[in-house]
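Propose amino acids for all 184 sites.
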């Protein structure tokens, strides 16, 4: 087992272990320990984790708080526990990706390595598409865009990403079908 595989195994065991922790204090201590262990990259990784979670966690937390209020149940402890757990898991995921080469960690499992390679390739394609949209939007808006302009741009960008996803899925399905992947 190489170093990257050891880190991946440790990460997977840690993720499973975190799901068994139901005390906010222990999760906060785990996050603090992870921040200390991450070294100089800690704040960059924490910022990425918080930004990645912001929209999702806020919407889920608000929905949960609304339902709990409607049912007259306490909400603060559950929300704290849930958000700490998710933040810790996402932080550890970003730290793992920052620390190891995923394809090296999956070297012993050819199928997983192939799937990871396909996923990494798709990430590169979509990152390029998003960069093109961002640069095009910036070049076409010499003044600060209005909120309506931002919404139109987001809609066009979302539509293009969806079209690209559907086209890619169709192409992959056709390639797999031609190679007998769907033959029973």
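Proposal:
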């Amino acid at each position: 087992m190489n170093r990257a595989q050891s880190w991946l195994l440790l990460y997977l065991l840690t993720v499973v272990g975190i799901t068994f922790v139901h005390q906010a204090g222990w999760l906060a201590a785990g996050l603090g320990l992870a921040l200390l262990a991450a070294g100089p990259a800690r704040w960059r990784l924490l910022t990425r984790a918080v930004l990645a979670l912001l929209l999702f966690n806020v919407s889920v937390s608000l929905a949960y708080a609304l339902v709990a209020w409607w049912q007259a149940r306490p909400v603060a402890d559950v929300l704290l526990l849930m958000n700490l757990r998710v933040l810790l898991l996402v932080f550890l995921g970003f730290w793992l990706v920052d620390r190891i080469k995923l394809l090296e960690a999956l070297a012993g499992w050819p199928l997983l390595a192939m799937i990871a390679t396909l996923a990494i390739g798709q990430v590169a394609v979509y990152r390029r598409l998003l960069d093109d949209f961002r640069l095009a939007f910036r070049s076409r808006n010499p003044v600060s865009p209005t909120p309506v302009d931002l919404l139109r741009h987001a809609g066009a960008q979302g539509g293009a990403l969806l079209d690209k996803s559907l086209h890619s899925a169709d192409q992959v399905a056709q390639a797999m079908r031609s190679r007998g992947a769907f033959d029973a």
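The chain has two domains: 3-105, 110-178. The chain is about 80% helix and 0% strand.
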